[in-house]
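Morning!

This is the sequence you dropped in the shared folder:
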Amino acid sequence: MAIVLSRIILEDNHLLIYNKQPGEIVQGDKTGDTPLSEEIKHYIKSTYSKPGEVFLGVVHRLDRPVSGALVFARTSKALTRLNQLLKTGGIRKTYWAVTSTSPPDEQGHLIHYLVRNEKQNKSYIHSEAVDHAKNAELKYNLLSVSDHYYLLEINLITGRHHQIRAQLAHLGCPIKGDLKYGAKRSNPDGSIHLHARSVEFIHPVRKEMVKCIAKPPDDPLWNHFLQTDQAK
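The structure's back. C-alpha cells below.
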C-alpha cells in the first residue's frame, strides 16, 4: 500500500486530510498490516526530505471497513488543538450510510448508551445508563432512495466505538455489508457502506474555517447516490 496523491483532500504545514478507502487501517494492529499513519509519514519524509523521525498525530480513527475523510496533524501544536476541538465538539463530522431498510422517520435524533465489548470488538446498545456505558447521540436525515437501498446522512454528536453501526442496527437499519451488526450479507470486498463524507472545523493555526468533502469509493451503489440530486 502507498499513499494515493489524488486522495489527499487538504495538506498544509499543520494538517493532512486523507480520503481513506475500505480495508485500510489507520494505526497498527494485530494483523501487522502497514497502517495509513506510517504510509503518510513515509510520504511526508520523502516528499519534503525530512531528516529524522517525522511527526504525525492521529486526530481520530475510522474502522477498517469504513471509508472517508480522516484528519492527521503534522505538528504537535496542531494535534493538541485538534484534540481539544474534538473533546468540545468543535470538529463536525458528517457520514453517509447505506441501508437496505427504510428508517421509521425521514429525520431522527437517536440517544442511547453504548457498552463496548473489547473481546468481541463490538458495542451494545442500552436504553438506560448501565455500568461502563457511554452516552451515544446522533442525528440522521434520509437523503435519497434507490430501488432497494436508502442513503442516510449522519451528523455525529458524540464519537463512540462503532456508534453509527450500532445505533442504526438498533433502529432496524443495519448498514449494507455490516454482518457484525445484522446485515444479511457481506460486501465482496469486506467493506461496509459507511463513509465519512465531510469534516468541518476551525483551523488550529490559521483560525479559518476548514471544510473537506471526501468522495465515496467507486462502486455502483455509491455512484448511483452521487448522481442523485439529493446527494450532490
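Headline: The longest strand covers residues 134-145.

More detail when I'm at my desk.
O.
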